[in-house]
């Protein structure tokens, strides 16, 4: 299992999956490299994530 800190991937309040922070991009690349080496024949991968804990549930649902 890999766990990333909530602030490492994206800027607060920005939903864009095309704009991860540099540290987030580096962390995701490291995870990918590790998983690719361990599970070469895997056909699927489950990723679970959540919005930040700072704003209201309604606002986060929109993200």
TrEMBL record:
Ranges where the OmpA-like domain occurs: 1-63
Superkingdom, natural source: Bacteria
InterPro entries: OmpA-like (IPR006665), OmpA-like_sf (IPR036737)
Name of the protein this chain belongs to: Outer membrane protein OmpA-like peptidoglycan-associated protein
Gene3D superfamilies linked to this entry: OmpA-like domain
Signal peptide: none
Keywords: Membrane
């Amino acid at each position: 299992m890999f766990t990333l800190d909530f602030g490492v991937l994206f800027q607060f309040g920005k939903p864009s999956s095309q704009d991860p922070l540099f540290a987030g991009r580096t962390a995701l690349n490291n995870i990918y490299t590790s998983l690719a080496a361990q599970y070469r024949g895997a056909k699927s991968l489950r990723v679970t994530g959540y919005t930040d804990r700072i704003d209201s549930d309604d606002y986060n649902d929109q993200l």
